Protein 1
Amino acid sequence: MSSNSTGTGPGAASSRTGPRTVVITGAASGIGAAIAEAFAAEGDRLALLDRDARGIAALAARLADAAAVTSHTVDITDADQVRAAIEDVVREHGGLDVLVNSAGILTEVPLAEMDPATWDETIAVDLRGVFLSCRHALPHMVAGGGGRIINIASQLGQKGGEGLTHYSAAKAGVIGFTKALAREAAPRGVLVNAVAPGPVETPLVDGLSPDWKRAKQAELPLGRFGRPEEIAPTVLLLASDPGGNLYVGQTLGPNSGDVML
Ligand code: NAD
């Protein structure tokens, strides 16, 4: 399930002052990949999780000079796979300091045409997946003295989007989950936040209709979708010490139309 793609060799003890071990789900593409590149530039150790084995292997090879990187092929909806991948990370890297949940799927389907299987799959990846990775990472973070969790939600979880009831419900769920877990985990040294981007130019939005994209673009003050590398700095801030300390259980919204773009 996992492979170490560097010669530098993980295994050093997790440290709050040295390089952090950062787990990123959905790291093969888009926002997750940009976040991985940003943490690699900080010299952190990375564990890339995705169901796209070739995608994370390619990214790991690209980042190998900058960081200690391991790749873990995992379906984020599968509890056993997620638990095993997190255990591999802790064993191979010696701990786990930061978890970024970026795995996600999106389809545009009016409710009247929504197949229950489509609803269930979206909730499974976009909400259950966040639950599972947090569920299995949290005890290791607590045992290691603390950590940071950053969940990638969406503006659609706050505003809703037509043709996206399933996705909007899942992302609203991620925001509620984040706030609840923040209360539960902060006293144990783990700070939990969400980032809620507006539309970002990634393969995820390829499936949206031209009408949907045109209407969305017209709402954005800068007149364009965000770029993955514009999301990463907010995630780095929330993972930073002490920069992220003031934000606990918050939902920040880069490129949201409300906040920055
Ligand atoms: P993307 O399609 O580029 O990347 C998503 C990644 O998740 C892919 O690598 C994919 O293989 C992985 N993934 C999907 N299902 C998985 C599963 N079952 N198990 C493991 N991995 C799985 O999309 P993106 O735009 O980078 O999206 C990243 C996150 O940002 C998602 O949670 C998405 O909902 C959120 N988001 C995206 C936008 C946007 O406009 N692109 C806006 C707001 C929020």
Protein 2
Amino acid sequence: MLKLKYRLLIICLSLFSVSTYAQVSSIQNIQSRKILSLNGKWNYIVDPYENGFYDYRHDPFDQSKSGSGGFYDDRVQKDKTELIEYNFDLSPQMNVPGDWNSQSEKLELYEGTVWLRRKFNAQPETDKRYFVYFGAVNYEAHVYLNGKKLGIHKGGFTPFQFEVTGKLKAGENSLVVKADNTRKPDEIPTINTDWWNYGGITRDVFLAELPAHYINDYKLQLIKGSNNTLNFVVKLADATAGQEITVAIPELKLEKTFTTDAEGKINQQFQWNKINLWSPEKPKLYAVTIKSANENIQDKIGFRTIETSGNNILLNGKSIFLRGISIHDENPLLAGRLRSEGDMRMMLQWAKEMNCNYVRLAHYPHNEEMVRLADEMGLLVWAEVPVYWTISWENPATYANAKQQLTDLIVRDKNRASVIVWSIGNETPLSSPRLSFMSNLAETARSLDDTRLVAAALEVHREGNTIILNDPLGEKIDLVSFNEYAGWYWGGTPSEITRYSFNIKYNKPVVITEFGGDALGGFHADENTRWSEEYQEALYKNQITMLSKIDALRGMTPWILTDFRSPRRQHPVYQNFWNRKGLISETGKKKKAFFVLQDFYNQMQVKYK
Ligand code: GCB
């Protein structure tokens, strides 16, 4: 009985302490703040039994009375009698940012806990606030500074930060992260996906030094439907009234000063007439400064409008065709998450070579740097959250998690002109709990940002030779956007698929979010032979013929730019843990179908000039 009481107490204490960790909302444009990079070599310990987290009764050390005992203490043996069964200093190192799977053969298929530690020096000043910022950790991160827990974060693709003011030491500090990429049914994504579950600290880590009343978030964008009215929003980290904030765009001779209200906020609209609008053809970005008495934040922002009208997508008021391709956050040549600007540029450059004006960054938020590059290179973006396949639709915690990831994505990327679509998910199976889950996500996206389109990659079904789209979620979103795999998973050989026609319930622009088929780069045969480049080429030709029958067709992002790693793809000759639907192979060679799509996009470019 006593034991049960004790256990209940521990559970209550642990719930209490989880909720008391300081959760701060995302700091906008971290790169432009005063930051110390904590990237580089981190020592790591692989911990499949979570030995550094639980004691031998499986109670977490960080919930014990002393709060210590775990690997986050980062202890070293003081004398020869002392027993310590771990040692970060003597453990191997890996690169951060970087997934662990691609850095050690032993970890290629590993799913579980790895502890990572970085030491750094700091000289904290008394009137400043300090934060550790993570671009992304997959999936669950427990973060400790100098042996004290800062907090927990779930979600593998969105940024988070913890305040360390008063916790940072002058001199050497030890930052320890327990990263756990175990797949679980109630998480976002769930246990089943078609991509590699890369674990670790996959994006930048910074220590940020900010003034006491720092600017936490800001937005500068055109309001919905206007090409000359700007909306300027600022949120200070605290409710300081009367702070003057100036927004300036020297090139436009624009300079305006506003004062924060009682909540520490500014939300103002004003007209400016000489703005050159951003488009893929002319990706005009303006140098923008946002200044307060103690801060000077630099950004590069483009301005454009996006809306739908009947079957058309209007960019800056003009009907466009989205010449797109889907992309995963993975470098096919080195098989790992994209690690640097060079990696990201390579992917987007390939899309440009295909004459794309649009990319689908599937199936989760990509790096902030990727979206900034799209801004710079002139590529429109579909940005997505990993609400993928069969999620736990009825679990409120799962919904809260999905909503948080969507919110963090929108908060992070709302100043990027390239982003035109917030996607709330991919191929989610019809049911009424799913419909309310997804409808609520759609509403969340709209309430956070009413200037972009909201969409999801839906599914179709068939009756005879008719492909039908009537998913009720179609009513709540702005595009008829769906995946269909005619010629690969169903519908016969590529030449047989042109018999299909479409029955689409909604009068909205149709954007095909996926079609495709696998081809092993360099394998040549006739066009009915699976896995050959000729099969994939014929599939693309016939898909284009079939899809061109849809009057409302306004774009597509075939699946996918490059081959990518997937544990679901096990054919020993043709797949070998690779999904081969790439138009570019894992050696960087363009397959035949690449040129079919390029040709089609050249025609569409002329048609929509
Ligand atoms: C899909 C999924 C995508 C898969 C693809 C495939 O429908 O959205 O994540 O990788 O099919 O290759 O089967």
